[in-house]
Amino acid sequence: MKKQQIFRYLLLPLAIILYTCEDVDTTPPTVSISSHYSGQTVGEIVIIKVSTDDNDGVKKVEFYVNDELALTVSKSPFEFAWNTTELDDGDYVVKAIAYDNSGNSTESQPIMLTINNQSYKPSEVEIESIVFENGGFTVTWKKSLDNDFQSYQLEKSVESQMLDYAVIHTTNNIDELFFFDTDVNPLAYYYYRITVFDTVGLEQKGQILSSSLDPAPNPVNIKSVTYTYTDMTVEWDKSTDADFQEYKLLYSESQNGDKTSVDTYTGLNTTSYNTNDFDPTNENWYWIEVKDTLGQTTMGLGKSNIKDPFPKKVNITSVNYDLSKMTVKWTVSQDADFLNYQLLYALGANGIKDTLFTITDINTTEYTTSNFNPTINNWYWVVVTDYYNQQTLGNGKTNTIDAPPTASEISTIYYENDSFIINWTQNNDSDFKSYQLFESESENMSNKLLVFSTSNVVTTNCNIGIEKDKIRYYQLLTEDVWGLQSISDIVEGDSHNWFVKTFGSGVGNSVQQTTDGGYVIVGSKYPTGGGSAIWLIKTDTNGSEVLNKTFGGGIYNDGNSIQQTTDGGYIVVGSTYSYGEDWDLLLIKTDSNGYEVWSQLLDYGNDEYGNSVQQTIDGGYIITGRRDGALVLIKTDLEGNEVWNKTFGSGWGYSVQQTTDGGYIITGSSSGGSNKGSVLLVKTDSNGNEEWNKTFGGNSAEEGYSVQQTTDGGYIIAGGSESFSGNESAETWLIKTNSNGNEEWNNILFGSHGKSVQQTTDG
Fold first, then answer.
1. Is the dihedral of CA 5, 10, 14, 16 positive or negative?
2. CA–CA dist 646, 172 (Å, integer)
3. Strand pairing category for 432-440 and 449-454
4. Contact status, residue 367 vs residue 328, Cβ threshold 8 Å
């Protein structure tokens, strides 16, 4: 027993020591306003919520508005129902302070809330009608549309502003929409208004509506005053008054002139008047004065006939010319009383006008003459005359004085094989005569020499021999048949730029020079982990990499053809084995930085391959390749959405170009036995419908890899053949056809197959 007491005494000091050594809680709680954020607009009852936490427990939360304590909450949830209707509209700072059980506290980040109870007020309720009947006024109003409706209050006053009013009726029934007021004097005016209240006490006063004594008749307006060659008809609205007595028709020669009575009509349904005594070239004003059974009268709005108008202008729409004639066109007259046109001519806009001839056929709107001079102004006008011999001169127009030809600009100068390949934009003027290319050793073109000229408008390039490591300057002069000339900007040619570049592990399948003089390449990149990705590389003029992009994931992705688009971006076509168990055709559009804008997967069920793509003149794209074993031609819009697709027998399409007639020319190979085939050339119209097809060779394996339309309208094909050596890669086969695809000549050139062909400036 004593041992137990001693043990008990020993435990007590130990417990005291342990208790006194426990850590004091100095960690404040966390607190933040979670229901709102600064800048919000609020109204009516707003529930302010906070998020708070503490390891020792939250004892209370105090809510402050503009640093004044608004509410203390001692248990969760810590919320503050803030009645904003008790405050003026404006900005208020709200914050919360949380306290834990150890006396620690934290103040939340304050927020600024804007009270605007104007937007929370109930919707205005309008009085619909005040009708005097049975010795009193029945006041009817519209139903409130507010979900928090509380009551209607009908207010009445004897003065129009209702500064002093009486509340004559109150109801909490939202469907009670009328009140019969018997405390009235029918000879006095009363003013009524509905005030609507919501559940938080906000109110909205409606518009003030006045009672009335027996009203004057509603005005009756003249609807129309029309005429023919024989009579004039006046029509007016029908009176809507129950106490109608008569119409009186009044007349004046002008809107503000003295009115005389024409006739009186007691029939409510009599609403028209006819006369044959009228002059349509002057105004004929009519009014209706309507009278009720109490003798009150009201005059409505008057109306006059439309005075016979002058003819509408007939304007010259164009004065055009070609090499043989000038054609003048004008708009057709819109007047029913048309009599004739007179065509006038002058040498200047303010010159003396001569009448050339008069035309009585309203549908004749064109004049042609071979006697003209396009280097001066030739002004024409049309005077139109109506049935009453009123005339109107229309707007004149002159020909465009023959301007200097549109300047054709030198677009690119490439150095290759000891020559500058100089390209320029084609002139599209109808009166084109020639291009003349000048060369100088000076950048200001001093001592320039004519080095090339042609009268063929579609010839837009030439080769100029140049030694290596030289700089020359070139300028293109364009001349029209009238002897006017335009000169291009001066462009530098530099024969220093030779380079060979390699880029990682992969294959380049297509390259094109870009408008900035650099190059863009597409092909396939082979990552370390296997498979392949479509690979796009852009370089500067020296072949230094500018951008490097890959597209596609999964198993295999090959980029086969690329072209720079008119917006400066790129269009890529290829094939992918990453979306199923077969090859699909993949079309990718990028911006000028190589970032994908969109891509389209063209999957027709089996294997599809895209080998060549070109942007068409409508901004869309034309693609050729292979689909289900057949050569395929696919047209898309500018977003890559398919417009149509066509197949042409079994084979492959390797190259496509839009032709000058808007159609398409395709080359590839037609499949033969034992995987051997012939060079295939297919011509279609603009909708992909075949116009003709031709095959070349066929004894062994032949394929056409590149096709271009030539300046004579025919076509040149580059491909490969093994008919001559038994080895496809051993010969390049060049085939020239006429515009119908019939062979004109062919040549076997040298080892390896031909992948690309272009007509040179010398033909």
1. positive
2. 74
3. antiparallel
4. yes
Could you tell me the pTM of the whole model?
Answer: 0.40
Q: Distance (Å, rounded) from C-alpha 413 to C-alpha 424?
A: 9
Listed in sequence order, the residues at least 6 apart from 382 whose beta carbon sits closer than 8 Å to its beta carbon are 314, 315, 316, 330, 341, 342, 343, 344, 393, 394
Residue for token digits 């005030």? 195
Write the single-letter amino acid at 292. D
Buried b (16+ CB within 10 A) or exposed e, 576-595: bbbeeeebbbbbbbbebebe
In contact, 429 and 350? CB cutoff 8 Å? no
Tell me the pLDDT band of 44, cut-offs 50, 70 and 90.
confident
Indicate the range of 34-38, 225-229, 625-629, 699-703 predicted with least confidence: 699-703
pLDDT, position 10: 35
Amino acid symbol at 306: I
Torsions phi, psi for 595 (to 5 deg): -85, 135
Residues 19-30 pLDDT 10s:
344 568 899 999
For residue 13, is pLDDT > 50?
A: no
CB 708 within 8 A of CB 715: yes
Contacts of 316 (CB under 8 A, 6+ apart): 328, 329, 330, 380, 381, 382, 394, 395, 396, 397
**Which of 136-145, 725-734, 739-748 has the lowest average pLDDT?**
725-734
Q: Measure the CA angle with vertex 713, ends 729 and 746; round to 5°.
A: 30
Instruction: Classify 16 as helix, strand or coil.
Output: helix
Fill in the amino acid letter for 71: L
Strands 664-671 and 642-658: antiparallel
Cα–Cα distance list, 508 to 278, 521, 563, 578, 632 (Å): 89, 6, 14, 20, 23
Q: How confident is the model at residue 20, as a pLDDT?
A: 42
Determine the pLDDT at residue 753. Answer: 56
- Cβ proximity of 704 and 717 under 8 Å: yes
Alpha-carbon distance 647 to 632, whole Å? 4
The encoded tokens of residue 590 equal: 């990028």
Residues 574, 600 contacting (CB under 8 angstroms): no
C-alpha to C-alpha distance for 741 and 692, rounded to whole angstroms: 8
Tokens of residue 168, six digits: 């004559």
Which amino acid, 352?
I
Residue 63's contacts (CB-CB under 8 Å, 6 or more residues apart) are: 48, 69, 70, 71, 72, 73, 80, 82, 94, 95, 96
Q: Assess contact for 589 and 570: CB atoms under 8 A.
A: yes
Distances (CA, A) of 356 to 342, 368, 723: 7, 12, 73
Question: String of b and e for 500-532 (b: at least 16 CB within 10 Å)?
Answer: eeeeeebebbbeeebeeebbbbbbbbeeeeebb
CB of 294 closer than 8 Å to CB of 216: no
CA dihedral 36, 40, 46, 49 (to 10 degrees): 10
DSSP β-bridge partners for residue 88: none
What whole-number distance in Å separates Cα of residue 459 and Cα of residue 141? Answer: 83
Q: What is the pLDDT of residues 289-343, one digit of tens each?
A: 999 876 789 999 999 999 988 999 999 999 999 888 999 999 999 999 899 999 9
